[in-house]
Amino acid sequence: MTSAAFQSKFTANILQSWWIQSGGSRITSMGTPEVKERNLVHQTVEISGAIEGTTIPLLLKFTPGGKVDEVRVRTTPDKSYTIPHPSYDQPHSYQEREIVIGNATYPLPATLTVPKHKPGEKVPVVVLVHGSGPHDRDSTFMGTKIFRDLAAGLSSSGIAVLRYEKHSLEHGFKMSAEPATLDRDTTDDAIYAAKSAAQQEGIDPDNIFILGHSQGAGTMPRILSKAPSLLVRG
């Protein structure tokens, strides 16, 4: 079973195109499914399939209701090593909340890191916006987790941080069937994140900051111009 959103994108033409690109190859065997990740939006399962001698690691993302909602081929090695936390991380001084941002069609799992504070007190928040390409909420890259470490440092110093899975990572296949735009890739999700941050318990809605990396930084003027109702600064 597949989700309605997936069905609307995974057409017969796309399936035929995939088969032609593979040279009409046959699937000769399938491995045992292995759960790789769970978040509030998807459960990711990896199945290694052999197509006429070539092993292809296929990632399937399932909705909480058990329907296939995404599919992609893993193109990078499966790294199981642990990336250490920075020395300035003080986990006893903050709490992490798992939330969902975005819209009903493309919900995005996110983490809000909130410093421990007195009852009734509100703290400022920084929304982290990725660079180009599909990235997770930690901005994991070559043995680093830049956004995770930024969240740890800021939250250890009294500032909340909201970071989220990028649209092109969580819903990449469905996105590929739509026209590529900067708003779809970066701007809209940053605005969803800022709006969600403003509604969270313990967050000061008058002190929302947006911090962008690479493409996220270059998009900042557009993000701010499209969010006139929010008191945000970038």
UniProtKB/TrEMBL annotation:
One term of GO molecular function: carboxylic ester hydrolase activity
InterPro entries: AB_hydrolase_Est10 (IPR053145), AB_hydrolase_fold (IPR029058)
Alphabetical keyword list: Hydrolase
PANTHER family linked: ESTERASE ESTD (PTHR43265:SF1)
Protein name: Alpha/beta hydrolase
